[in-house]
Amino acid sequence: MRRDLAKSYVFSGMLLILLGVWIVFHSFTWKYYTSLGPGPGFFPFWIGLLIAGLGALLCGIHLIALKRDRKAGLEIGSRGSFTVSGLRNVGVVIGTLVLCSLVMKWLGFVLTIGLFSFFHLYIVGKRGWIGSVVLSLLLSVGLFSLFRIKLKIPLPIGVFGF
Amino acid sequence: MDFLVPLFTGFTDVLTLERLLYCALGVSWGMMVGILPGLGPSAGTALLIPLTFGLDQTSAIVMLGGIFYAAMYGGTITSVLINVPGEAASVVTCIDGHEMARQGRAGVALGISAIGSFIGGSFAVLLLCIVGPPLAVFALRFGPPEFFALMAMGLCLITGLMGKSILRSAVSALLGFAIGLVGVDPVSGVARFTLGQNEFLSGIDFVAIAMGVFGIGEILSTCENPGQVSRPAKISNLFPKREEWFPSLKAIARGSIIGAFFGIIPGIITVVPTFASYVFEKKLSKDPSRFGKGAIEGVAGPESANNAHSQAAMIPLFTLGIPGTPAIAVMMGALMLHGLTPGPQLFQQQPRFIWAVIASFYIGNLILLIFNLPLARLWAQCVRVPREVMAPLVMIFCILGAFSINNNLFDVKVLIGAGILGYLMKKLDFPIAPMVIALILGPQLERALLQSLELSGGTYDIFYQRSLSVIMLSVAMFFLVASAIGEIRGKRRSLVKDVD
Asked: What pTM value is reported for the model?
């Protein structure tokens, strides 16, 4: 049992219960059983029920462990291996990825990926700006050429025409 | 020896300049990805799937095969040179491989790894030739109840054997099932969990999920604590001393058998046979104290087991349609993307294709050996790629790959969501493999169950009336119950801890 992650597991267990209940609730929208056998609601019902059940088990096991540790006066792991700086770094990466997916339709592949790689090389990675510019250009233009010309995959072209 | 004629035909299909080039490209790219620490063969194969778009089926799978086993080998290079395992199975190689590098014998460690991988991989491919066709014929007797039982058994084995906690493994598998529910019901055609999005009608694409959880998830994990990459050890001579050849070859032979044996069983990840081989070599050795101090058998055996396992895992994939490991699940997703459904019908309906792919495995193993022996120093330079350059490169490839599936930015959003899920699962120690495999098998499992119940008129007796189904379901239950009891008694944890 990962005691250092006990609180995280209680939280995850609750999320799983919510997910399971949501799936079960939606499964009632479809027929559970038809004249030919199980209907479209059959599998989701049982999957949802199992997810909720195992979520409750996960939650329960770690709540009991936390209670026992508290009684014994043991130090309880709070965030486990999550740290503020780590979460910040993760947040930056997720943020840039989301931004990429939102703007690519308008800016186009070359510009979006060029800016994305420059940001990660120069700002996050603290590489020199000339190297970052060169590598960003090579990546964006090179990959665009490879995928669009060689593999014939129509990558997004933005309002600027590339 | 019935396989010789079709295998020869397979060789004639593969031995064209174009297909040899694709195989070589696949091996090169697989090596590069495998060398980058943390990515592993699952992520590496998933990332490079888009590069096969636009190729014919055989060329695409030849390239993917090259990517797959080269990515398995690439992890060895970082293990030996900088003591960082490229993927889980390469952990064992760090023990004696890096020690050999510290003694100025990095080249020998890499050389014997390459030779062992070639022999192990070739042995596994030979096993595929011998065992594959009769197993595929046997599996043709399977009806929906047997397929349901087989997939349930595969999933229970994977859930029971992977991860440190069966509860978390089970949750992971159920999450995979839940994701697989999105889309159109396989029998009635009713749209489920589409949330009003037309893009969800065809389901959530497996490749986007695989790239997300393995690729983006890994990048998110490593970006938390950016570290320094050590300077790689220098490489000089590539071959062992004369007196080391015989013990090395014996270790390679034993490792190949161990790896191939475990590869046939779904759910046994590569870490298990590599550790088993290491422990076996140590126990057999006249002087076990050499192990941990640069014993060549400690590298030769596990590396052969590693490659033999990864290629023997193709046997349940091609003959039964069961992916036994996450990397094989990614291969299965790629095969399906190219319009092929792995399973017993494949040997009957597309024998020429299957034998061409098997022949390509032999050739790929040979190309891998050729690339690794003279080009070892070149690959060593790839280890120096800084993490801050590698991370955006991997992310861009993931974005490209996700977009290329349906030429739709929606799949990029799925990729990011899967990446966040993969990151959280890693942080919370939920094994990813059961989720990925359940995602692939879930819809097929549901279809088989519904077809079985339609055949039986709605009763579950059909599963008890057919002997194969009963055997497989009993094995599935046994594994789940044994794993649960083992976990309660703490034995499972200590076994996995040893493996870790």
From this structure: 0.80
